[in-house]
Write a structure and sequence with these properties.
It is a single chain. By secondary structure, this protein is of the alpha+beta class. The chain has one domain (4-96): Aspartate Aminotransferase, domain 1 (Alpha-Beta Complex), CATH 3.90.1150.30. Helix content is 29%, strand content 28%. It has 3 helices and 6 strands, in the order H-E-E-E-E-H-E-E-H. The protein has helices at 4-12, 50-56, 83-96, and strands at residues 18-22, 25-29, 33-39, 42-46, 61-62, 73-77. It has a 6-stranded antiparallel beta sheet, covered by helices on one side. Helix 1 (4-12) packs across helix 3 (83-96). The two termini are 21 Å apart. It comes from Arthrobacter bambusae. This is MmcQ/YjbR family DNA-binding protein. InterPro entries: YjbR-like_sf (IPR038056), YjbR/MT2646/Rv2570-like (IPR058532).
Length: 104
């Protein structure tokens, strides 16, 4: 089970990532937004696999109508994934968000 603390630790471990609020929630930015807490226990990342992930596991991966205009944004129920999977998703999100270097 992943937590907000895991999101923070993984994001801040990548070169150039900064934390600042977005819509009143903690968010992490490379060149652009790479991750954000949507609500308690739910995080937002960028991915090129949103539809495939949601089709395979809709209880974990989903989006709201708010995200329809941003096809790379996906919501994740953190309690339903482990930290290794979270790390992989955040590394992809970092690359999409224009991270200044390669993630660890």
């Amino acid at each position: 089970m992943a937590t907000e603390d895991d999101v923070r630790r993984i994001c801040l471990g990548m070169p150039g990532v900064r934390e600042r609020p977005s819509w009143g929630q903690p968010a992490w930015f490379a060149k652009t937004l790479m991750a954000r807490l949507w609500e308690e226990g739910v995080g937002t990342v960028k991915t090129n696999e949103r539809e495939a992930l949601a089709a395979m596991n809709p209880d974990t991966f989903f989006w709201t109508p708010h995200h329809d205009q941003s096809p790379q944004l996906m919501l994740i129920r953190l309690e339903r994934i482990d930290t290794d999977e979270l790390d992989e998703l955040l590394q992809e999100s970092y690359r999409i968000a224009g991270g200044p270097g390669k993630p660890k």
